[in-house]
Amino acid sequence: MNFFNSAFGTNITFVRPAYFIISAFSGFPDIKYYYVFLFLLYIVSVLGNTVVMVIICVDHTLRTPKYIAVFNLAFVDLFEGTALLPKVLDIFLFDHPYISYNDCFTLLFFYYTCIVMQSFNLVALSYDRLIAIIFPLHYHVKVTHRFMFSLIASFWLYAITFAVIAVGLLTRHSYCNSVVINSYFCDYGQIYRLACDDKTRSIIVSILSTVLNLWLPLVFIVFTYLYIGYALTKVATVHERVKAFKTCTAHLSLVAVFFLPVIIASNSMGNLNPNARIINLSLTSVFPPTLNPIIYVLQTQEIKESVKKLFKIRRQSKIAVHV
């Protein structure tokens, strides 16, 4: 953060607290059970995303451009949960509400990067489905391994750059009043509201983040599926339409799991009491990484076949050992 600050000038003095205090729920005597629930979801998320990543690595038939994006989504989900949940559980289950200034912004940086990557990873998958259905004969020319690697890498570069700018601007504030963050983690909106100087730049970044990292990807995905739907109406048989649509069900489920809770949370924040807002935010952060691997294992035919194949190989190896 010092490098970021020096880029703006070295003669500016900021008031920076040694730590922030994470203050989530008030008036909830048994709230620890909720954090145990979050911990269980985290365990499911770790196991599920690890299984998906291992399956893609082990099964050579899944080493296609599409599954580069699927692997990256599982990695991002695993990374986000590991960056966020252990610290949240340490804060509330073990009563360590104090988090240092630098640790708070580091946690926010990793969380912000993962959220942006989740959004744009779904864009990559929607583009893959668009080309596969609309231009099936040109799919292997348009969507190559090199193209998908380049697309995912560009999204990572954008996500990291945006997170650096957003978090870096928070370090340009003075925090001379309260240091209590009324959230379950280092929440961007709650932090800049604690600043006692001009918050205009941080407010602009917050608005830009919603537009660029939420609504723009969602509009692209919706447009993609409207175009796919229009193209499917031109297909001669109902069977072909259903077959093409089935290839999109897993991705559509991922889109719904990620975007719907975020949209509901962002549009209802002003109407919710603080405790309901925090529950809404925490579930929005935890559910997508937990449900994504389950959706892909249950709704993707290639992964289901791969799982059956792996179990069959393992069963045969056990029989061979006993013989």
Describe this structure in words.
The protein is mainly alpha-helical and 323 residues long. The protein is built from 12 helices and 3 strands, in the order H-E-H-H-E-H-H-H-E-H-H-H-H-H-H. A 3-stranded mixed sheet has the order 2-1-3. Helix 2 runs antiparallel to helix 3 and helix 10 packs antiparallel against helix 11.
Mean pLDDT: 84
As a whole number of angstroms, the C-alpha radius of gyration is 22 Å
Structural class by helix and strand composition: mainly alpha
Sequence stretches where pLDDT stays below 50 over 5 or more residues? 3-10
Total number of beta strands: 3
Question: Could you say which overall geometry the principal axes of the C-alpha atoms support?
Answer: globular
Q: What kind of sheet is the major sheet?
A: 3 strands, mixed
Largest sheet strand order: 2-1-3
Compute the number of helices.
12
Write the layout of secondary structure elements.
Layout lengths: L1 H5 L12 E4 L9 H27 L6 H29 L4 E3 H34 L4 H4 L2 H26 L9 E2 L6 H5 L7 H33 L5 H9 L2 H20 L5 H26 L1 H22 L1
Parallel strand pairs: 1-3
Antiparallel strand pairs: 1-2
Helix pairs in contact: 2-3, 2-11, 3-4, 3-6, 3-11, 4-6, 4-8, 4-10, 6-8, 10-11, 11-12
